[in-house]
Amino acid sequence: FPINDAEAFHQVISPENKKLAVIDLHMSWCGPCNIMESNYRAMYFNFENAEDRIGFFTCCEENIPQEISTALKYGALTCKPRFVIYVVSS
Questions:
Q1: CA 71 → CA 7, 23, 46, 49, distances in Å?
Q2: Which of the 8 DSSP states describes residue 63?
Q3: What are 18-74's pLDDT values in tens digits?
């Protein structure tokens, strides 16, 4: 699912969202990593109750909240795929 603004990004990573969130961060000119889509599908169908436990998202650079963008290790986004994973611990 695409994340279309910073507010939606915050909703995806919110502690109220109990799902594991896998987010493909990408440059607007490059687009998300299409190769990973089949892997996402395979992972999704291997999870029991996947719709309640995991979500896969894409987010282009202009929709990443500033504090998240600043916190990324190894600098700014490039054309190489970058994935972040958020999980709420109990």
A1: 17, 15, 31, 32
A2: G
A3: 889 999 999 888 888 888 888 888 888 888 898 988 999 999 999 999 888 888 766
For residues 90 and 20, the answer to whether their CB atoms sit within 8 Å is no
Q: Using DSSP, state whether 71 is helix, strand or coil.
A: helix
Q: Which residues pair with 60 in a beta bridge?
A: 26
Q: Give the list of residues 6+ apart from residue 87 with CB closer than 8 angstroms, or none.
A: 20, 21
Work out the burial of residue 68: count CB atoms within 10 Å of its CB; fewer than 13 is exposed, 13-18 middle, 19 or more buried. Answer: middle
**Alpha-carbon Rg for the chain in angstroms:** 13
Q: What pLDDT score does 75 carry? A: 64
pLDDT of residue 55: 92
Token pair for residue 11?
């909703």
Two tokens at 60? 């282009």
Determine the Cα–Cα distance for residues 36 and 83; give it in Å rounded to an integer.
Answer: 10
